Amino acid sequence: MRGESAAKGASASTTVTRPKPASHGAFFGAQYLMGLQIFVRLATFSMNMLVIYIAGRKAFGVASVRFELLLSTILFLSREGMRNALLRVNVSSSSNSSPRSRLNKRPLEQEQRIINAALIPIAAGMAMAGCLYWMYASRSAQSPESLSNKSAPYYRLSLIVYIVAAWVELCVEPLFVLSRAHVLFKLQAKCEGIAVSCRCAAVVATLLLGHYFTIAEADNNPLRLLAFAAGQMAYAVAIVAAFVRYMASELDYPIWMCYMPRKIARSDAGLENSYIGRSLGSLAATFVGQSLIKHFLTQGDSMVMAKFATTDEMGIFAFVSNYGSIPARVIFLPLEEASRAVFSKTAAAVNSQDLAKRPAADDKANARDARQVLTVLGKLQLLLGAILTVFGTLYSPILASLARQTDAAVGQALAAYCLYLPLMGLNGFLEAFVHSVASRSQLVRINTWMVGFTVVYMMLAVYVLHRLGLGSAGIIFANMLNMGLRIIYCRVFISAWFARLGIAGPQLSAMLPHPAVIGTCLGSGAVIVAISAAFSHLQNSTVFQLLMLALGGALGTAVLFSIWLYEQPFIRSVRRLRSGNLGSIKTS
Fold first, then answer.
1. Considering only CA atoms, which of 123, 111, 37 is closest in space to residue 79?
2. What is the pLDDT of residues 454-511, one digit of tens each?
3. CA–CA separation, 446 vs 435, rounded Å?
4. What would the DSSP string read from start to end of 431-458?
5. Helix axes 408-437, 333-345, angle to 10 degrees
6. What is the DSSP secondary structure assignment for residue 357, as one 8-state letter?
7. In CA terms, which of 385, 520, 521, 561 is 20 to 30 Å from 393?
8. Please, what sign has the CA dihedral across residues 14, 20, 21, 27?
């Protein structure tokens, strides 16, 4: 790799007591992912508002639930397990082991290993796409959407385009995993930003075409489903083209070599002329099984909605999940990606089979680093959770009203989602740690527990939606129970993992916000409730709603000031974490 990897190679030649791996800079690189998510959320928010206005909420619900479920099934099951397994491949360890490869303009051994493994999701995705199309097509023959072109025009064509777009997007895998292996977060952000822009432009252009050339009403736009498919195809083509363009300037070998499998001669562990190696293959198989279970956990709500919900309920769920997940996408997801990179390269070293060649002090130092990262992330999630719980739940009806969603069910579902978000954030980085340090046997045990959680969640979700008729809010509350069970399991696993090393695990007391911060949040909530009750007759006034938003901004600023005033040790820890200086992190 040029540029960034050259700097890493130069710094690696300096003799230090404890070398700082490139993964320790992952939290610095996470700022690019956060910037990307801010752009993506703003662009998607603007696009979705226009989509609901032009195409109607029902079409938005069908595309966001059924089509996105199809897309995520192909992508997640094809690539997620392999991506997690490849995080444990350390490309820096072979940076100086094969100079001949550089002279011949070929990938290094570990890079070639990553390339070989990353080609598997492309083939798997092609097979999965064919199977899922047959399943969707046969099932849709019984659904109202396919029986009436007026109800859902171009439904079958949109389905085909979505499936082809999913496979095209999988073609970026070799380049994506190489960029992540070298912590090129800025490059990833740039490529995905370009792709998102193309998707938004394609969706809006297609909808406008159907709206103005047919003079159709919102719910009767003939291209309303095809627009989402066109947008997804534009995204897939753009992200592949962008990665090819920018990775070509980072690689020291031709880009086409990233799509050519090649056997790697290895003399260790009895492996000869191996493509990916038995160890990585076994680990990838374990992660694939885990990704299947995780897919049911993360997409179970969409599966239940697609089977039992009406199109209007799908529209409400799509609205809430798209807008309510803005904090999760902007903040939680980049932090989870960065923490996964750090844990995989730092804490997972403790599970190395070559323990005899490494001092026990190194194991404990890696474990302490991981503990500090867990503590800082835990406190960050609790602070964000306190803000979301107070302001998100109280302002959900106003935000729904300003977005022209006056149904009470929308405000209730959005408020429930604000309670769900803190649990989602906590579970994200806890599972990132567990999946990064767990051995293969432990991953199998984790999968068994996840199966149990999946069964409980699916049964509860079907019951609250189909029998109790609680709609989207009921699905979200079922998700909260699911997240709670997963958090408890991760907490037990983490405590046992640190106990095995003779080190105290992260303590909840160290993660709790300062009492003054909690008091400020509760006081802000009390003020909002009191004013809303006093002027309840003005709840539907736009001017009053804007004034309430201004009040919320002022109270939110007061909460942030209290954090700055009373959480200085934590703020310094975040800065050290961002710079990669894990050893000096303290939260109090």
1. 123
2. 888 888 888 887 777 777 788 888 888 988 999 999 999 988 888 888 888 888 888 8
3. 9
4. HHHHHHH--HHHHHHHHHHHHHHHHHHH
5. 10
6. G
7. 561
8. negative
